[in-house]
Specification:
The complex is a heterodimer of chains A (394) and B (77). Chain A is mostly beta strands. Chain A is 10% helix and 38% strand. Chain A has helices spanning 3-25, 207-212, 302-312, and strands at residues 41-45, 50-55, 64-69, 72-77, 82-86, 92-97, 113-116, 122-125, 130-134, 140-145, 172-173, 181-182, 189-195, 197-198, 201-202, 216-220, 225-230, 249-253, 259-263, 269-272, 278-282, 318-325, 330-336, 343-350, 353-361, 366-370, 373-376, 379-381, 386-392. In chain A, β14 and β15 (201-202) form a beta hairpin. The longest helix of chain A has 23 residues, at 3-25. With 77 residues, chain B is mainly α. Chain B has 2 helices and 2 strands, in the order ααββ. Chain B has helices at residues 2-9, 11-30, and strands at residues 45-46, 52-53. In chain B, strands 1-2 form a two-stranded antiparallel ribbon. Chain B starts with a helix and ends in a 24-residue tail after the last strand. Mean pLDDT of chain B is 58; it is low at 1-5 and 19-39. The chains are: A mainly beta (394), B mainly alpha (77). The interface between A and B is medium-sized, with 36 and 28 residues.
Amino acid sequence: MNKKGILLILTGYMLVATSCFKSQNNPAYSSFFAGEISGNKKIEMNKINIDTITLTNVNTSYLGFSAISGDSIYLIDKLFCWVYILDLDGQLITRKLGQGAGPKELDLKFVDSFCFLHDGRKLFVGSSLDLHLYDKNWNRIAKKVIDWRGEYTYTDIYQIDSPDPAEISLYGFEYEKFKIINSFKHPDVVLVPIYSEHKDFNAFVSEDYYKKGRIMASIDIRKAKVVGLNGRRPPVYLENKYLGHHSFYSFTLTSEDEIFITHEIDSLIYMYDYDFNLLRKFGYAGRNMNANYTPLTTNFDINKIRHLYFADKPQKGYYEELFYDEANTLLFRSYKKGNKQKVDGLQIYRENVLIADVDVPKEFVILGYIKPYYFSKAIFDEEREQIVIYRFKI
Amino acid sequence: MKAMTNIFRKPMLSIALMFFLGFSIIPLAMNGQGSLEDDSSIVCHCNFWGKCKASGSRANCAVGNPNVNCQDYNGNC
């Protein structure tokens, strides 16, 4: 073979390799959603009996989260940075952390989110991309700021017209739906929802935002660095331009790092592997949901957008939260019906099969499981100065 | 310079200066998230929902309030 032939083969090889690399980084939009809808409906229960636990002895700002880890329920006060630990009857066991700069305190003005890692470490996140990591005995390990730079800095990207959807600095934490989940296979990696507010690339102005925008970031908490972006928003969002005030999702992981995702206005639940290859999709619409969504049909207008989010959205029904009980292979999905309905909804799937779609009290959102009970998230009611947690057995 | 030197010759003024430094400037500099490493590039703005976050995009902070730069004196949210 002469030199010209070798050169041609090498050039061809480089072209193929480059295109493969590109398609790996930019998989086709359809690959995230295309495929048969699996599963069916086989209702096994029409009602669940729900207990109410009312807590009145917790000193709190009434801005908080709840969590389940091991056999305990945790209440995290966003403002005072206290972490209360409760037993499964809601009895207070102890209190940890609290705001302050000490080694067993949380140096934060406001807790935006948290994650209890599988190895016992605790992660708290503030509004400035700041991570606060504690060991299993609540001693501070590290305070770090996430390096969220890509080709551009976090500030410079706003000066760029038509940015690349793969650019890291284009995105930030989705603070309004800020759920952090620890990977099972990568102990130092957490997965978080992200979004963009770029003027040319956001949920209210851009079709490309829905087709090409990433929805989830992988963050290495040891390096405090974004190590991956992935996921897309489903096609249903492009049927109504634009429903940015509903462009949120919830997700959960299996112990194999498979990802279940439910988007607010999509009745389907998508299951992906860790690399976002679609494994299956399934699901049924909730009952009596007000799905008459109001899109923003005008140019970008921040006052209209806030009206849609704060005033219009509560009237609508949407899918809100997922919890996967792996031991019993049950997937729970909480949904809102809209504020004209007196109850909200909870669906239960076994594998791909819908086995229950029951009414639950308003504000009920599934949280987790401590044998023998399933628990709702805590509802912080400042007016009545109480915290309510629901629980049930099936 | 001479005035500065004179301050330290007057005990009351020196004590006042130490109190000023001890209770105002030094704690401010060490306060909260300001003590985090490498936070100089983090600038917060109001986001679409009127909250001060690192993901904010310079949207107005609230209806009628154009104060888009919501960070405090240390540049924190």
